[in-house]
Amino acid sequence: MVFGLFKILGYNFSPRFRDLDDQRFWRATMPGVETGRYGAVEDLARNRVNLNKVITHWPDMLKVAGSLVTNQVRAYDLLRMFGRDGRPTPLGAAFAEYGRIAKTEHLLRVVDPVDDTYRRQMNRQLTVQESRHKLARDVCHGKRGTIHQAYRDGMEDQLGALGLVLNAIVLWTTRYIDAAVAQLRAEGHELRDEDIARLSPLKHRNLNLLGRYSFTASVPASGNLRPLRDPEAPELDEDDDGAEPD
């Protein structure tokens, strides 16, 4: 069903399956239309998509897509509505059949022995997601990554605040990365666009996530950024308070 929802919205759902050998491939044949053989993957395409279900419920499927695009309903609530007592509703079954087409395309691109472009794109996407999750765990209650509220509203408030902090960190880091790139180029350094494209605002070793904070004197005047650190300046260790050695 998730594949079907992504497909009808024009998005690409590309999860990584741990049990890839157990996944099933499907073939879709329009009623009354003859299709040829599938060559080397003929044995894989033994399961058939029931396109009649998709055709029957297609107008309702489009209405569901419109409701998602206009934010009239959440995808999570839709998935709950698509199933009753562990069994899919007729509309849910139609999305499942439709999703089997997209899932088969996804699996074929994953196991492609010649072109690994798709697998590389998946790995980059997962790396970004894992980096964001790591940042969230570090920010959430001092690297503990725990939610302390016992009721739903309180949890949602804490998660909403966490999302706000994450967005602020990403925005702050992005602005300073852009300023650093601009300064390096102004100084005559050669920076390749492909290297800049790999920069991530989710890196946060430079952020102090524990301790006390003062926000009054840390806001630059007139919205200007602070001066960038001189890379040739000596750095202090974490336990060094800057005092002269004995």
UniProtKB/TrEMBL annotation:
Any Pfam family matching the protein: DDE_Tnp_Tn3
Domain Tn3 transposase DDE: start-end pairs: 1-213
Residue ranges of the region described as Disordered: 221-246
Ranges of biased composition (kind: Acidic residues): 233-246
Domain of life where this protein originates: Bacteria
Protein name, UniProt field: Tn3 transposase DDE domain-containing protein
Source species: Streptomyces badius
Organism placement in taxonomy: Bacteria, Bacillati, Actinomycetota, Actinomycetes, Kitasatosporales
